[in-house]
């Protein structure tokens, strides 16, 4: 294998930019002469990628599906041109399947190897696309443990590399918050995680503030805290909840979770971080009723929709998904969980078991994926 191969990356969103950056850093350590070029964001650039197409900050400024279609078509044309000019040894699409299906196809049409990092969740919403994934990739790096067997059984060359979230998550405290004491005294500490995107915060923050009000009425000494990933999200939460007195903390989500007895969490990766800290939770995600009736109910293919329940293959925490915005329904679900100590204790045990299934790999996810990228380059004579 050449010690200076060209590797092309594509990441369309902030989370993909972060995961790609870690993988690029791992590859740069192993292949210091490699040229890494592609489409992405500042995190990738900082890691040593020539970001020929800045997608992440631009994508966050776009509103409406039609504007996005035109933008991504232009980006795809540019990416094809770069592939033609640089002849990369391998293309690494990261997450974002709506765009990266097309990136993978463009690579295959040019005879370039494709190493897909963070498998598209075809098991959840598009089982008919598993064959497409097999055709358009040489290898898929999975971050959920069941994906490897699921995809391999359907003809996809797949490997579980671990979940990158747990490569950096701070260890949980040796002694977790005492659920029995909180139940007896009413001194609950409750984390509220309304998401990171503007739309998620708009959909969930005010309902979570109403949950906090209901908890305060029931247990006056309870403390509820909004955990925002950054200052921008904190301001969006403040705008969404108006004059609510609920505390908002930015950039300290692990600390808030480590100190909490209970959490209300918008569905997504945050549920896995919450599980890591052994926090019982209610998972919620708002969806428009008409959207669900016309689209969602027909394409979803899993019994459960929150990651913690999917990984457990049973309901270990209550999930309101789809949730159409009923504040009363959310309040009732949270209070029902908090008033049943046995359920809380069982939920803590079960979420810790789910977290353990994702942690403790021999290598960090980025290093395990770097192994796969290098192996693919070697096999293809790059």
UniProtKB/TrEMBL annotation:
EC number: 2.4.1.182
Lineage: unclassified sequences, metagenomes, ecological metagenomes
Organism: marine sediment metagenome
Alphabetical keyword list: Glycosyltransferase, Lipid A biosynthesis, Lipid biosynthesis, Lipid metabolism, Transferase
Pfam family, any one: LpxB
Keyword match Transmembrane: no
Cellular component annotations (GO), alphabetically ordered: membrane
GO molecular function: lipid-A-disaccharide synthase activity; phospholipid binding
UniProt catalytic activity: a lipid X + a UDP-2-N,3-O-bis[(3R)-3-hydroxyacyl]-alpha-D-glucosamine = a lipid A disaccharide + UDP + H(+)
GO biological process: lipid A biosynthetic process
Stated name of the protein: lipid-A-disaccharide synthase
Enzyme's top EC category: transferase
């Amino acid at each position: 294998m050449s010690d200076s191969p060209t590797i092309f990356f594509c990441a369309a969103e902030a989370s993909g930019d972060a995961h790609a950056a870690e993988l690029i850093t791992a590859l740069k350590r192993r292949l210091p002469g490699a040229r890494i070029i592609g489409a992405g964001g500042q995190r990738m650039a900082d890691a040593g990628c020539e970001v020929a197409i800045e997608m992440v900050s631009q994508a966050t400024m776009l509103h409406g599906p039609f504007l996005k279609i035109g933008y991504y078509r232009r980006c795809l044309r540019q990416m094809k041109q770069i592939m033609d000019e640089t002849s990369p040894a391998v293309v690494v699409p990261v997450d974002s399947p709506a765009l990266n299906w097309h990136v993978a196809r463009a690579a295959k049409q040019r005879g370039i190897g494709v190493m897909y990092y963070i498998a598209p969740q075809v098991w959840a919403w598009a089982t008919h696309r598993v064959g497409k994934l097999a055709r358009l990739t040489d290898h898929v790096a999975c971050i959920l443990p069941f994906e490897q067997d699921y995809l391999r059984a359907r003809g996809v060359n797949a490997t579980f590399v671990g979940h990158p979230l747990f490569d950096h998550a701070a260890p949980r405290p040796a002694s977790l918050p005492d659920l029995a004491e909180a139940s007896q005294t009413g001194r609950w500490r409750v984390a509220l995680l309304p998401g990171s995107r503007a739309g998620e915060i708009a959909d969930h923050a005010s309902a979570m503030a109403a949950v906090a009000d209901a908890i305060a009425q029931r247990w006056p000494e309870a403390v509820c805290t909004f955990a925002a990933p950054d200052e921008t999200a904190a301001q969006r939460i403040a705008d969404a909840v108006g004059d609510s007195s609920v505390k908002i903390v930015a950039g300290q989500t692990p600390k808030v979770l480590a100190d909490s007895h209970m959490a209300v969490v918008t569905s997504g990766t945050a549920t896995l971080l919450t599980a890591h800290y052994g926090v019982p939770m209610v998972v919620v995600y708002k969806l428009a009723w008409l959207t669900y009736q016309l689209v969602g109910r027909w394409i979803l293919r899993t019994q459960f929709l929150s990651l913690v329940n999917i990984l457990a293959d049973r309901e270990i925490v209550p999930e309101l998904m789809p949730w159409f915005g009923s504040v009363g329904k959310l309040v009732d679900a949270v209070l029902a969980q908090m008033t049943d100590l046995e359920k809380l204790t069982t939920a803590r045990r079960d979420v810790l078991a789910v977290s353990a299934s994702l942690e403790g790999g021999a290598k960090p996810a980025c290093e395990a994926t770097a192994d796969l990228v290098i192996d693919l380059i070697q096999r293809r004579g790059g």
